[in-house]
Design brief:
It comes from Nelumbo nucifera. Keywords: ATP-binding, Kinase, Nucleotide-binding, Serine/threonine-protein kinase, Transferase. Belongs to the protein kinase superfamily. The protein is 45% helix and 15% strand. By secondary structure, it is an alpha+beta fold. It folds into 2 domains: 109 residues, Phosphorylase Kinase, domain 1 (2-Layer Sandwich); 234 residues, Transferase(Phosphotransferase) domain 1 (Transferase(Phosphotransferase), domain 1, Orthogonal Bundle), CATH 1.10.510. The strands form 5 sheets. A 6-stranded mixed beta sheet has the order 1-5-6-4-3-2, with helices on both faces. Strands 7-10 form a two-stranded antiparallel sheet. Helix 8 runs antiparallel to helix 14. The structure holds adenosine-5'-triphosphate (ATP) and magnesium ion.
Length: 369
């Protein structure tokens, strides 16, 4: 089958090359992965996502791995598996989680990654880790690193890749707290020349660009929107959608934009930071986040611009950003329909909502235990 041809290609073309650290991937046997994960023991489970469960494991050479085991077997899953393996196999960047190998035996489909000892950004922002672990410098490094990883997908990979599921659980942290953007399972390769691909909506509540949620138009700018939400989450420590009461929900953009417009940056900052942040950087992160997470896709920056802005390389561009109509609502007439539109998209995907919330609760539970 086509899947097999792809696997074989990847393997043989790499085999003759001099082994570089984590530069090649290989086929794992099911037996080997059973042994590594103690037969996919519940105690080894790191969490569960849209694809299935992820288990921690240790290989015979002592190296630690994370094994993603598809839960439901279907033609659709087979296709998504093939997509993920093919994309991951070809993408290499310091801020993108590399594929270590795969296993396709009988009905089993498994993907093997390096284990990320500092787990996901989600577990640090909303889990039970000590607040000291995620100080401001680390947050800046994670913001810039993950932006660079996505920039690589959008602008340097051939063909360009849209991630389509950028969120805090898909930003993993290595031993140096360097961001490793993971999960390309929803990504689709964009054919050269095409500006967007129309496809079924898949992603995570709270991070979905309105045009993607409503019209199913996936493009790089949808990733930019999701990245903006991720940045806001990173700076504020708040979830993309906060439950205020059983019937009331608040979007992060709807809450943060008015505060930023009034220059009340410190009120947006994560209280866990205890005021320990670089003011200029916080301001920069919040402005960039909101400019990314605005409703009109054509007004969002590219990821190349996002990296430049986050690094603060160009004073002129930062000044332009501050003067953007988004932050000067009196000039432009009114605020973006930001919060209402984000809420519309929430309604639109209400079916996925409960499943997602359940998943979040489970993840919280898994990380806390
Ligand atoms: N290589 C890894 N090292 C450490 N933890 C990992 C690794 N891969 C995944 N995880 C963790 O395992 C859990 C499940 O991951 P998974 O990717 O299946 O779900 P998700 O990220 O919540 O959702 P999605 O399916 O949309 O990606 C998450 O908490 C994730 O951070
Ligand atoms: Mg994931």
């Amino acid at each position: 089958m086509a899947l097999c041809a792809r696997f074989c290609c990847g393997k043989t073309s790499n085999r003759k090359e001099k082994p570089k650290k984590q530069q090649t991937w290989r086929v794992f046997s099911l037996k080997e992965l059973h042994a590594a994960t103690n037969n996919f023991n519940y105690d080894n489970k790191l969490g569960e996502g849209g694809f299935g469960s992820v288990y921690w494991g240790q290989l015979w050479d002592g190296s630690q791995i994370a094994v993603k085991r598809l839960k439901v077997w279907s033609d659709k899953a087979d296709m998504e598996f093939a997509v993920e393996v093919e994309i991951l196999g070809r993408v290499r960047h310091k801020n993108l989680l590399s594929l270590r190998g795969y296993c396709a035996e009988g009905q089993e489909r498994l993907i093997v990654y390096d284990y990320m000892p500092n787990l996901s950004l989600l577990s640090h922002l909303h889990g039970h880790h000590s607040a000291e672990l995620l100080g401001w410098d680390r947050r800046m490094k994670i913001a810039i690193g993950s932006a660079e990883g996505i920039t690589y997908l959008h602008h340097h990979a051939t063909p360009h890749i849209i991630h389509r599921d950028i969120k805090a659980s898909n930003v993993l942290l290595d031993s140096d707290f360097e961001a490793q953007v993971s999960d390309f399972g929803f990504a689709k390769l964009i054919p050269d020349g095409a500006t967007h691909v129309t496809t079924r909506v898949k992603g995570t509540l709270g991070y979905l660009a309105p045009e993607y949620a409503m019209l199913g138009k996936a493009s790089e700018s949808c990733d930019v929107y999701s990245f903006g939400i991720l940045l806001l989450e990173l700076a504020s420590g708040k979830k993309p959608i906060e439950k205020l009461s059983p019937t009331m929900k608040r979007t992060l953009t709807g809450w943060a934009l008015p505060l930023v417009c009034q220059n009340k940056f410190s009120e947006v900052a994560d209280p866990k930071l205890n005021g320990k942040y670089v003011e200029e950087e916080l301001k920069r992160v919040l402005l960039v986040a909101l400019i990314c997470a605005q409703n009109q896709p054509e007004k969002r920056p590219t990821m190349l611009e996002v990296v430049e802005l986050l690094k603060g390389d160009s004073k002129e561009k930062l000044a332009n950003l501050e003067n953007n109509e988004l932050f000067n609502p009196t000039k432009s007439g009114s605020h973006q329909e930001g919060s209402s539109s984000a809420e519309d998209s929430t309604d639109f995907i209400s079916e996925e909502k409960d499943e997602e919330e359940l998943k979040e609760e489970k993840a919280d539970h898994a990380h806390s235990s």
